[in-house]
Design goal:
alpha/beta; 7-stranded mixed sheet; 25% strand
Length: 199
């Protein structure tokens, strides 16, 4: 890979993979922020606040000579406006997936960019429909280990693909980094040519 041109404020291997997919050289620099949901906070507002907080936190940590554009993102699953975090164990995963079973929910992902010229952010909202899941399927899925660190208790790009009957919106956004919105933020800052390579 070419010399990193941006810093990714996330430890998510999925986000890093998506950046590589579109040819954005980057260095992973995860940061930690308080992810507590505020009272009455809407899902899109929640992910936007966290993405901006992560990007800002990393930017403030950088020495002047280190400064490169900082990209951060945050994703949550919501059903009827209720935010679903990461399940803390089998019982929570069963409750989450049981509620998502046979229904359509939303996935909200915000992406934020901070650079020398300022800051910007965008939010993507997509819809995912699950078929009816059996208790045995949910228990099996938990045993795979996949749901433990995923918002809403599932990974669209993993075994849970077998549960999904319909998607409307951004597949990459559901994975955790909406590439359309991300490219829109990065392209002007990185001086990308029409060919998609840094000028």
């Amino acid at each position: 890979m070419r010399e990193p041109v941006i810093l990714l404020a996330s430890a998510s291997p999925r986000r890093s993979e998506l950046l590589r997919q579109v040819g954005i050289a980057h260095e992973v620099r995860p940061v930690h922020v308080d992810e507590t949901v505020q009272a009455g906070e809407a899902p899109s507002a929640y992910v936007l606040r966290l993405a901006e907080a992560k990007a800002g936190a990393l930017w403030r940590q950088l020495a002047l000579h280190e400064r490169r554009p900082v990209l951060a993102a945050d994703t949550t699953v919501a059903l009827e406006g209720e935010i679903f975090g990461k399940p803390g164990g089998l019982a929570e995963a069963q409750a989450m997936l049981g509620r998502l079973s046979g229904r359509t929910h939303e996935v909200h992902t915000a992406v934020a960019l901070v650079h020398e010229g300022g800051a910007a952010a965008r939010v993507n909202r997509s819809s995912v429909t699950f078929r009816e899941l059996t208790p045995a399927e949910i228990a099996w899925y938990w045993r795979t280990g996949e749901p433990a660190d995923k918002a809403g208790g599932y990974a669209v790009q993993g075994r849970a693909a077998a549960f999904i009957s319909h998607i409307a919106g951004s597949y990459s956004g559901i994975m955790g980094l909406p590439l359309y919105e991300t490219w829109g933020l990065l392209a002007p800052v990185l001086g990308l040519t029409a060919g998609g390579r840094p000028a």
